[in-house]
Design a protein that fits this description.
The chain is an alpha/beta fold and 893 residues long. The longest helix is centred in the middle third of the chain and has 117 residues, at 527-643.
Length: 893
């Protein structure tokens, strides 16, 4: 690729415009970017400085250079090939080189020059000002446009005049290059000085108070203020030949002065060593962000305003955030297209994959996002990810349904073939076949919709198969009836044929009788025999006729009974089919509910075990730490006692007393922890071995597997035994005397929807209540029994009514917080303290609940009322908190 100068910002009739070519070039730059901009009066050799010194182009290519008095460069141009360097701080980066339109051209005004100068300043990280000759008043006057910079620039919107010191924080490093410099760099005494010192001497304010001197000093002050990091470098004239000076870019290296070549090499090294990555508000800019910054500045100028740095930064941040959103969405689509090749997947699997991809992309976006709009763009990204994830979920659902439909249709064809081939001839075989396929299909199901599809298809298929079997049975019955009718007709034909035969035989007998009569005379001996034979034949005929009539009647009755029996069987089969459908739906609902309860219970038990182990480890660590502190304190006490044995016995006594008390507290805490462990083991063993547990809140008997989950829901949703919210107030106190010892009695008012009542309680009774609740419910975070309650009676008498008022308020808050805890509100200790009787029988509070134990329930000799407490003991919402060991006592007389 051939390197060339491309326009960065051009000036047209409508104003300044950032070119698409430069935006595309900047968009392809990755990583840190440094920007070197060269500015100076027109026809002073800026482009030559860029081409031969900075870019080292010796083939005549580079930024435009001309031999005439007309300016060659319009607007801002950038070199298309970044220079990769490593600066003095060891940073690897790409450096962009920008050439600017010459200042002071005949065809442009001062306002245009100021904007070119300002754009080069704002976009660069290293600003090079090119001029010819020495730094004198004319040279400084050429920089008079710097006076207008504070008017042409705003740090943020809606502000007054811009502070130059604040502007300086956004300006780049400044290098003044003096071309064709022929003087010696010496001070007033003839000692050699550096070019930087020469610049600083030129910026020293002149003495005087005239307007002319003030104008000159103003330029000097602004240069010193705007450019904190400034330097100067001088270059001798490249050659003395005028013909070469007009064609410097194409001149061979031999025509240049050796001194100029060495200075040019030194200047190049200085520039690339000092250049830094372009930053704004502490954030390093990429090429694309630099392009967005240029667009924001030019748009502000074109609208007739002034560039707003904070506004431009906001635009850059928003563009970067939008780019981050677009990049994340493209990556999401790419990964989801790869996942789509494996669809359909199980719902849990695709949910997990989408969640992992979404979390990864949101994290990636947060790493790249900038500015105050990160939250809005992050929400926008999450919303887009959610929408696209829903599309792929619907696609997965559609593919799973299509797969299920194909499998069901294929199996339906198989079942129809089995029915047609008489492999399934009754409902028992049909039921077995359908259940076998349903089990196999459910094992391979990946979504709930496939199971629903299966149920719908099975219902339809079972109905069609049943109709087919019934139709087949009915056809068989009809065929049997047809066969019986045919047999009946055949029998009737036989009877008719026999009857005809009998008639023929009768005629024959008549003829024979006539013959017998004619032969009567001759056959009188055989007359009796013939008559008897005639009577026998008649009886036989009658018997045969009766036999066939009975047979016909029997066939008719038997056929009717079979038809009625088949109709009855058809009706029974229909009822059985409906019953099976209802029972299957109920079983599915029960299984889903039981499965949810079992999962909740399993998770609950795991959380209990993890929480208990964590608390036990914390307690052991704390105990170990306290023992170490105790040993260290005892060692320190021994050392101090050797030094202060005669002078400070009281300190030793107090220290020993404190350590002994702390050790007792530590031992007591260890004992409490061991008791908690034993209670937990007994509780788990009791729950594991019991056949059923009764909830004392609602009175229901439940299986141990789901008892804990039920108790949590019951505590959350169930009504309290004390109707409504309990209102508590401590309106007054009374000082009483008993045996010469004064004590304070507190009158407490209680009220709720049902009634109101008053009780009187001593301070010591409050202490006993707190101690009892701590022992009874060590797993609960009880309200703080704070500093107000730790004052004894002697302090009350010394501090007068203020302590009593503080205690009244403290007791009122303490009792109110206790009454807001359902398990404390129901316990016997608290109810006795507030003057209420305790009703432990849940059936009285819940008269409509079924409290009859389930069949097979056996009492194990211990009430399960504490099961509520035990289950809450190890839940996340009731984490035990161990109180710190103190060396104060709560005393009341």
């Amino acid at each position: 690729m051939n390197s060339k100068a491309i326009p960065l910002i051009i000036y047209e009739r409508e104003g300044f415009r950032v070119t698409p070519e430069s935006l595309e070039f900047l968009r392809n730059l990755e990583g840190k970017v440094g920007v070197i901009a060269v500015v100076g009066k027109y026809r002073t050799g800026k482009s030559f400085l860029l081409n031969r010194v900075i870019l080292d182009n010796r083939d005549g290519q580079g930024f435009g250079v001309g031999p005439t008095i007309n300016a060659c460069t319009k607007g801002l141009w950038v070199w298309s090939e970044p220079v990769e360097i490593e600066n003095s701080e060891g940073e690897r980066m790409k450096v962009l080189v920008i050439d600017s339109e010459g200042l002071g051209a005949f065809d442009e005004d001062a306002n245009h020059d100021t904007r070119i100068f300002l754009l080069a300043l704002l976009l660069s990280s290293y600003f090079v000002y090119n001029s010819v000759g020495t730094i004198d008043e004319n040279a400084l006057q050429n920089l008079s446009l710097i006076v207008n910079l504070s008017k042409q620039l705003q740090i943020r919107s809606s502000q007054g005049p811009t502070n130059p010191d604040e502007i300086a924080n956004y300006f780049p490093s400044f290098l003044w290059v003096l071309r064709d410099f022929a003087l010696r760099l010496v001070d007033g005494e003839g000692n050699p000085i550096s070019a930087r010192k020469y610049l600083e001497n030129a910026l020293v304010l002149q003495k005087g108070v005239s307007d002319n001197i003030e104008a000159k000093n103003r330029i000097r002050r602004l240069l010193s203020t705007f450019f904190k990091d400034r330097d100067c470098f001088s270059l001798v004239r490249p050659t003395e030949r005028e013909d070469v000076l007009q064609k410097l870019d194409n001149a061979p290296e031999e025509v240049f002065r050796p001194e100029f070549l060495s200075q040019a090499e030194e200047l190049k090294k200085k520039i690339f060593t000092k250049v830094k990555p372009k930053t704004l508000n502490g954030q390093m800019l990429t090429g694309e962000m630099l392009g967005q910054l240029a667009i924001a500045y030019t748009e502000a100028i074109n609208k007739g305003g002034v560039p707003n740095i904070e506004g431009a930064w906001t635009s850059v941040c928003q563009a970067e955030c939008q780019k981050g959103v677009d990049d994340c969405m493209r990556e999401f689509e790419q990964e989801m297209r790869e996942i789509s090749k494996r669809l359909p997947l199980k719902e849990e699997e695709i949910y997990q994959l989408q969640a992992e991809i979404g979390n990864k992309l949101v994290k990636k976006f947060k790493e790249k996002a900038l500015g105050d709009s990160v939250t809005n763009f992050k929400q926008q990204l999450k919303l887009k990810l959610k929408e696209r994830a829903l599309v792929y979920k619907e696609k997965n659902e559609r593919l799973s349904q299509e797969r299920a439909q194909k499998e069901l249709e294929a199996w339906g064809v198989t079942l129809q073939n089995q029915l047609k081939n008489k492999e399934i001839t009754n409902f028992a075989v049909l039921k077995t076949t359908i259940e076998s396929f349903s089990k196999t299909f459910r094992a391979d199901s990946i979504t709930k919709s496939m199971e629903i599809k299966l149920l719908e298809y099975l219902i339809q298929l079972y109905t069609e198969s049943a109709d087919y079997i019934l139709a087949s049975s009915l056809t068989e019955i009809q065929n049997e009836c047809r066969r019986l009718y045919q047999q009946l007709e055949f029998s009737q034909d036989q009877v008719n044929r026999r009857k005809a035969e009998f008639e023929a035989e009768k005629d024959q007998l008549k003829r024979r009788l006539e013959e017998y009569e004619r032969e009567l005379c001759t056959l009188k001996a055989s007359q009796a025999t013939s008559a008897a034979r005639m009577e026998d034949l008649i009886r036989e005929k009658k018997r045969i006729e009766e036999s066939y009539e009975e047979r016909i009647q029997y066939l008719k009755e038997n056929t009717s009974e079979k038809i009625e029996d088949l109709k009855s069987k058809y009706q029974d089969a229909s009822e059985k089919l409906n019953s099976l459908q209802n029972s299957s739906q109920k079983q599915i609902a029960d299984l889903q509910r039981d499965n949810a309860l079992l999962r909740q219970e399993l998770e609950f038990i795991k959380n209990e075990e993890i929480e208990y182990k964590r608390r036990r480890n914390e307690a052991e660590s704390e105990a170990k730490e306290l023992r170490n502190k105790l040993r260290n304190a005892q060692s320190e006490k021994t050392d101090r006692s050797e030094k202060t044995e005669n002078n400070e016995p009281k300190i030793i006594y107090e220290t020993n007393k404190y350590l002994s008390f702390a050790f007792e507290k530590l031992e007591l805490r260890c004992q409490q922890l061991e008791e908690k462990v034993e209670r937990l083991k007994k509780c788990k063993k009791l729950i594991k071995n019991c056949s059923a547990l009764q909830c004392k809140i609602c009175g229901k008997y439940l299986n141990s597997n789901v008892f804990s989950a039920h108790v949590i829901a019951c505590l959350r949703d169930g009504p309290a035994s004390i109707d409504g919210k309990l209102m508590i107030e401590v309106p007054q106190t009374t000082i009483r005397d008993e045996g010469g010892k004064p004590y304070t009695e507190y009158v407490i008012s209680f009220s709720n929807k049902a009634k109101s009542w008053n009780v009187s309680r001593k301070y010591k009774m409050f202490c006993n209540l707190h101690s009892s609740l701590q022992q009874q419910f060590p797993h609960l975070n009880l309200p703080e029994f704070g500093a107000v309650f730790s004052q004894n009676s002697s302090s009350i008498t010394s501090r007068k009514p203020t302590i009593l008022e503080e205690r009244k308020k403290g007791f009122q808050i303490y009792l109110t917080e206790l009454s807001n805890m359902p398990i404390i509100k129901e316990c016997t200790t608290f109810r006795k303290f507030i003057g209420l009787d305790f009703d432990p029988i849940p059936s009285q509070r819940y008269p409509n609940q079924d409290t009859t134990p389930p069949r097979g329930y056996k009492s194990r000799g211990k009430s399960v009322y504490d099961m509520v407490t035990t289950s809450r003991m190890f839940s996340d919402s009731s984490s035990p908190v161990l109180s710190p060991i103190t060396n104060t006592y709560d005393i009341d007389h």
